[in-house]
Specification:
Layout: H1 57-60, E1 74-78, E2 90-91, H2 93-99, E3 108-112, E4 122-125, E5 127-128, H3 130-138, E6 142-145
Parallel strand pairs: 1-3, 2-4, 3-5, 4-6
């Protein structure tokens, strides 16, 4: 089979409904909207979620919990992720974003101690776990909390 032999499945391609093109088309005059009423008029219809006056679903369901608007979004990075940097480099927010380890909106970066490291690095982050601090310093690196 080749690209020029491909064709859509039978019944997959249908012509667009052309409204208001005469009585003989079957969709002339009122264009399939019927006579009078809200939906027959332009801009007619009801808003999303409206159930004809019945209490809408989003109001019938119980509400639980709350959203903390002061929540901090902290990007988490493990020691094992730092193996992509060469020995002696300064690993800061800019370096982490460039390497693709940190993405999107964040309020800080925290280094966690999962994994091992075999080189000395200077790491500048907002928070560090105790095990991560020990592993970096045992390899001759330094941690700077900014």
């Amino acid at each position: 089979m080749q690209l020029n032999q491909l064709s859509p499945a039978k019944g997959a391609k249908r012509k667009r409904k052309r409204l208001g093109r005469g009585v003989g088309s079957g969709l002339g005059k009122t264009s399939g909207r019927g006579h009078k009423g809200s939906n027959s008029r332009s801009g007619g219809g009801v808003r999303p979620g409206f159930e004809g006056g019945q209490m809408p679903l989003q109001r019938r369901l119980p509400k639980r919990g709350f959203t903390n608007i002061f929540k901090k979004r902290i990007a988490l990075i493990n020691i094992s992720d730092l193996s992509r940097f060469e020995a002696g480099t300064v690993v800061d927010e800019i370096a982490l974003v460039r390497s693709g380890l940190v993405k999107g909106r964040r309020d800080g970066i925290k280094l966690l101690g999962n994994g091992d490291i075999d080189r000395s690095l200077t790491v500048r982050v907002n928070a560090v776990s105790q095990t991560a601090r020990e592993k970096i310093e045992n390899n001759g690196g330094t941690i700077e909390v900014v």
